Structures are given as structure tokens and as C-alpha cells.
Amino acid sequence: MRAPGGTAVFFGGCVPASPREEHLAHDIGVLLAEYGFTLWHGGYNGLMEHAAKGAAEHGAPVVAVSVQNMPWGTFNPHVTDTILLPTMGARMHTFLDAADVVVAMGGGIGTLHELTAALWYAGNIRPVPVVIAGATASRLIAFLRKERWVYESPTRPLSFLHRIDRATDLIPHITAAHDSHRSNS
Q1: Is this model's pTM higher than 0.70 or not?
Q2: Could you tell me if 45 and 52 are in contact, meaning their C-beta atoms sit under 8 angstroms apart?
Q3: Residue 87: alpha-carbon gap to chain centroid
Q4: pLDDT digit string (tens) for 53-98?
Q5: What is the maximal distance between C-alpha atoms in the chain?
Q6: pLDDT band (50, 70, 90) for residue 2
Q7: Among 70, 130, 131, 169, which is least packed by CB within 10 angstroms?
Q8: Which segments of the chain does DSSP mark as H helices, in order?
């Protein structure tokens, strides 16, 4: 039986950068399920679907969080529940307010929006762990740090931001999120 682990929000694009990133997304989904997390994602294809498949294969609930009446297509077959919201802003607040951990991978402009919202939220509202996974997202964060779009200061620590290359690198971050969720339940 799965122990309740909280909510893991997964942001990743519809067009994966490589088969390696597809496998990483799947393995992240598996690991989140093994630690008892419910996977929340946009609900569509690409990296989202790979993470959802990994989570679903191991019994985790998979929730699609989307905007009502958007013609983005059908949800992937691993979705077990949906949350449809009236606006993109409501969607982002729902994701981030519920998140015990955020995992972000490469993607398009939508994923970029989600990632930057998560970074702002974690740095200003609540320090939810934001885990950057894979080479594509890691290059983006490196660029943002180099150009000082993302930087640490005494009033804006970045202790919530982590980077991983393998799914197993996620374990310390989800263990901490899992323990935090259990103590708050």
C-alpha cells in the first residue's frame, strides 16, 4: 500500500528534447509513486505523459490540471482525475498552492511559464522545493543564473532550488517533502 506522500507537481513539455529525457521523466514518475506522491501535471503528452505513465504503473493517482475550454487535445491515458479551472492564473495558483515538491524538465513556452512561476512562488510565497531535472532544463537554469534573472541575495535565498541528472538524485528532495507533508497532515 502506498503511504500518503503529498502532491508532486511535474512540469515538462509536449516535445521531449531526447529519448534520455523521456526515460528520465518516466523514472521520476516511478520514484514519485514509490514515495506515495500523487502526480499533478498538465495532462497532455510528451514528458508529462512519460512521468504520468511511470507514476500510474506504480499505482499513483495522476491528476491533470488544465484550463476549461482550451483546445489543447485530450488528456493522456494515465490521468485518473482532472481539475479544470477558469484561467491560467487560477491553474498556476492551484498547482503551486498544492505542491509539496515541483519537478521541472525541458519544454516549450508553457513549461517556461510554469517553471518561472514556480521559481517566483518558491522564492516569495513558500519555499516549496523546485527540482530541475535533465540537461535541457539545467541549461536553462544555468543561463538564467548567468544572466542574473535568477540570483541569490540575503532576502531571496535559493535554497529551494535543486538540480538533478538522474531520478535517484530526487530521493533526498522528495524524502524531505514527504516528511514535511506528513508532519503537516
Answers
A1: yes
A2: no
A3: 19
A4: 999 999 999 999 999 988 888 999 999 999 999 999 999 999 999 9
A5: 46
A6: very low
A7: 70
A8: 19-34, 47-57, 88-98, 109-124, 135-146, 171-184
